[in-house]
Every structure is written in C-alpha cells, then in structure tokens.
Amino acid sequence: SEGQTSPVITINSFLFLQLAAQVLDDLDDEDIGFGLVDSKKERAVAKKLGLLEVDSIYIFADDEIIEYDGELAADTLLEFLYDVIEEPVEIISNDRELKGFHHIEEDIKLMGYFKSAKSSHFTEYDDAAEEFHPLIKFFATFEPRIAKKLNLKMNEVDFYEPFMNKPVSIPGKPYIEDDIVSFIEEHDRPTLRKLEPHSMYEIWEDDINEQHIVAFAEESDPDGYEVLEILKEVAQENTENPDLSIIWIDPDDFPLMVPYWEKTFGIDLSSPQIGVVDVEDADSVWMEMDDEENMPTADELDTWIEDVMSGIIYPGDETDYNHDNNDDDDDDEDE
Questions:
Q1: Domains of the chain, CATH where assigned
Q2: What is the pLDDT of residues 214-251, one digit of tens each?
Q3: Signal peptide location in the record (predicted)?
Q4: Which 3 state secondary structure label does DSSP give 251?
Q5: Phi-psi category of residue 199: left, alpha or beta, with phi > 0 → left and psi -120 to 50 → alpha
Q6: Which of 131, 294, 289 is nearest to 215 (CA)?
Q7: What is the pTM of this model?
C-alpha cells in the first residue's frame, strides 16, 4: 500500500530456509525479502536488530518488529504476512462492511468513530493500531450513520472481547496513543480465546499460575458446537474475573497435532473434551464427558471451573470428575 515499506523477515535458524522457499513461491507479486541471521557468528547483528530468541522468526514492517509466534507451516506464515501487509486500521463505510465486522467474534477487535482520516484523534488511533498489528484488529468509521448503529460518539473507541455480546467503551476520550495501548495491554487476555495457528505459541505461553483450562471442540460438529455455546455462556458470566481464561482449540485447525494431544493428555478428540493442563509437565485432568447425549450444562461447567480455580481439581489428580457427580450428591440429600 502507498507509503508503507515492504516487510523483511529475519530468521534465526537454517531450519526455516525450506519454509521461506515455500512462502516465496506464493509471493511473486509482493516485495518481501527473507534474511538469515546466524546466532553464533552474527551476535552483534542480532543484538542491533533486536532479535532476542534463537530459532525465531521476526518480521520488519515500517518501524515495527513483529515476532511470529505461530505454526511453522508455509500456508500459516503466508496468511500472516498478507495480514501484515494490510493497513493496521480497516475502514467501515457501509452496511455490508459493518455486517462483516459483526461476524468477527473470535478475535479482540476495536472500533472507533472519527471525523476523517485527517483527524488528529484518528492519527493517535492509527499509531496505537500499529503497535498491535496484525494480531489485534482495529476498525474505524467516518460515517455518522454507521456510528449511530454502533452507539459510538465522535472520537470514541469501543473494545470488543472475543465472544462477548457487548463492547466496552475505552474511558477518557479523546485519547492519545498511550491511552489506547495501555487499555489493550490491561485487557488482552480474554475470558475465552481461540488457539489460532498464527499465534498458537504466544497464547500457550500466556498461562495463569502455569495452568490452562483447555476445551477441545470441533465447531463443525454438533456436540462440539454445543460445548462451544456453553463455553461462551460461561465466559460471558465470568468476564469480570481476571484470573479466568479458557483456551478453545478446534482440532480441525490442527490436524497434525491431534495424535500428539491425544497421546500426551490421554484423551479422545473425536468428541469434545474440557480439562486443566499444567504447562510445565503436561499433567492434566479432564471432565468426564463419555455420554454424547449428556453434555455438561453451563452451571455444571461453571462449578467445575470454580473447583479448578480453587485448587480442588488440579493437573495430575486422578479423581474421576464426571459432571453428574454433583447431581448424585443432591439426590442423596433429598432421600
């Protein structure tokens, strides 16, 4: 795009050269270059460029350095690169584009309303977007009619957490860049977030007390869809809890990882699974869900999560946590 320099990718490992070649085959029309830095022979170069981790991919675009924390697959990296090339703020000008905006529910997104692209307030917003591009999606409109449908006031920005019904308005408008950046940094761990191929390592490393609550569910499968809807309900009820973050993994997105996950966690991913995983040693405990006709309710899942967070349920615990157990206890009390 006009006024935007082409990205350069610097790779710290010879192992990624084949990956680079595969990506370059599909980038005939783009001015994108790959560079290789030998971490032993070229330490001074790596330090000067700000390359901190060996065997990592860094993307240089304009004045930003973006570390790629995704799957080492050519198609995933290629898709990520195309996102990098796009402008950091997407402008919404009509109802069709607004409909597309509303269909994005799996990602953090922001929407701002400004007088025009020349507005100083939009410039601050655009500068903030560059800090998070392309991992967080920034949108803006200059149309009063669109802003009215979004209940946005002039120079106001709304923050949308994934899978939540309503956005949160960033306080203190009009904002400078630091206001927006600070708000995002305080709210960039959603209650429910999807593990994406382009950011899988970044998400996995963002654990809470070295644990993750993980839900495997295929969105295209009826049972998986049901579990996902239950997860959304639980997340919406607990969105104010900073210590709760559930990672949703759709096995369809990671076909090569399924055998590894099944072997490591001792689970069958042909049906939905919900558990808590220790990120250090991969110990885990999983909610019993063998009966496909009897998925846990939102209340049962909420209770199970509370037990995880209070330490009653923990990775390595061999207790059978069937979600019907609480109902059995209630029946005993009624007798």
A1: 8-85 (3.40.30.10), 89-186 (3.40.30.10), 192-334 (3.40.30.10)
A2: 999 999 999 999 999 999 999 999 998 888 999 999 99
A3: 1-21
A4: helix
A5: alpha
A6: 289
A7: 0.84
